[in-house]
Amino acid sequence: MGLGCLVRSEDELVSVCKMWSGTALVNQGGLMNNKVINCGSYQVLGIVFVLNEEMGSEGPKSVTIHVTGFKKFHGVAQNPTETTVNSLKDFVKKRGLPAGVTLGSCTVLETAGEGGLPTLLKVIESESSSENSSNNGQVIWLHLGVNSGSTKFAIESLAVNEATFRCADELGWQPQRLPIVPEDGGINQARKTSCSAEGILEFLKKKGFEVTMSDDAGRFVCNYVYYHSLRFAEKKGHKSIFVHVPTFNRVNQETQMEFVVALLEAIASTC
Predict the structure, then answer these.
(1) What is the pLDDT of residues 92-135, one digit of tens each?
(2) In terms of residue numbers, what domain contains 175?
(3) What is the pLDDT of residues 178-237, one digit of tens each?
(4) Which residue among 23, 124, 242, 243 is the one 20 to 30 A from 269 at the CA level?
(5) 24 vs 176, more confident
(6) What is the pLDDT of residue 126?
(7) Active site residue: 39, 106, 222, 271, which one?
(8) Does the residue 23 lie in any domain?
């Protein structure tokens, strides 16, 4: 009789065969020639077809990650995300990324809500072209913002439908308790990232970075952009996530560049 089993290595296959008291004829999707693995002097029971996700014939999954940062704003004369995003292409070119992972557009946005929204939407629309959608790969939007009072990186798990700016943005807009998208409901509505925020967090912690989880992206421009991005990502079948970084005087530029490259890897491997 024929048997079906999902295993990831030859050792796992041997264990399964011993458990089933059999010898397995392996067919691994054309990657390996059919071969017999002996598990002792047991009776042959059937065929085990092996699916190895990491070595599958389709190759590594395709992930394109687009990154945005912000320009300066009130109280932050040098926004580290502007420097990081402007330098990221060259840095990644030197360092490289895992197979299947592509760094897409790198865009620095005006630190503005309503007045800066057209730029964000233009970038999203332009990158949602047939080139990105035809390869059946995952498209992810990574937004970087600064938290000048923090010494750690923070993975933002959600955005809230509220614009309450503590000061005017760079285009002079200062909303108070306004819904970002009125048709979504009131200011207590929230949108969560569909990325694995916990998985990203653990990946980065294992790399040695000081990083935490956050469910409060504020009510300023960062939250405003994140909410819109999550909304449009859902419509287009993309994913979106926001990460707050410290200023360079708290965590230096080199460390932040290393962090963002690790972040790209974390997103690609968990989302």
Answers:
(1) 999 999 999 999 999 999 999 999 999 999 999 888 864 444 55
(2) 63-270
(3) 999 999 999 999 999 999 999 999 999 999 999 999 999 999 999 999 999 999 999 999
(4) 124
(5) 176
(6) 87
(7) 222
(8) no
Closest Cα to residue 68, out of 174, 192, 221?
A: 221
Q: For position 214, what pLDDT does the model report?
A: 98
pLDDT tens column, 36-86: 444 444 333 333 333 333 334 345 579 999 999 999 998 898 999 999 999
Hey, what amino acid is at 235? K
Domain assignment of residue 18, yes or no: no
How many Å apart are CA 182 and CA 256, to the nearest integer? 36
Q: Domain of 248: which CATH number?
A: 3.40.630.20
Q: Is residue 27 part of a domain?
A: no
Tally of domains in the chain: 1
Per-residue pLDDT at 128: 80
Give the closest residue to 72 by CA, choosing from 179, 150, 146.
146
- Which token pair is 18? 């011993």
- The C-alpha atoms of residue 269 and residue 271 are separated, in whole angstroms, by 6
Query: Is 238 part of a structural domain of the chain?
Result: yes
Kindly state the tokens that stand for 105.
């557009």
- Residue 222 annotated as catalytic: yes
